[in-house]
Design brief:
The chain is an all-alpha fold and 61 residues long. It has three helices and no strands. Helix content is 79%, strand content 0%. The longest helix is centred in the C-terminal third of the chain and has 29 residues.
Length: 61
């Protein structure tokens, strides 16, 4: 999976946590500016996940 695909996957997953609001305003209808906010959040979540994975791999060695 490319980093772009991964970022999109994380962003949409985070957006879906809004529940009813996300259902009323589907991801596909969001403006580029609103999507960028979710991409920024996704990148932060990805960074944390990457750190946790790296730490787990180091601990396994």
């Amino acid at each position: 999976m490319s980093e772009t695909d991964r970022r999109e996957r994380y962003a949409t997953a985070l957006y879906r946590t809004l529940g009813y609001s996300a259902e009323r305003h589907p991801w596909s209808g969001l403006s580029a500016a609103r999507r960028e906010i979710w991409y920024t959040r996704a990148e932060a979540a990805m960074a944390v996940a990457d750190e946790e994975i790296a730490e787990a791999l180091r601990a396994a060695d």
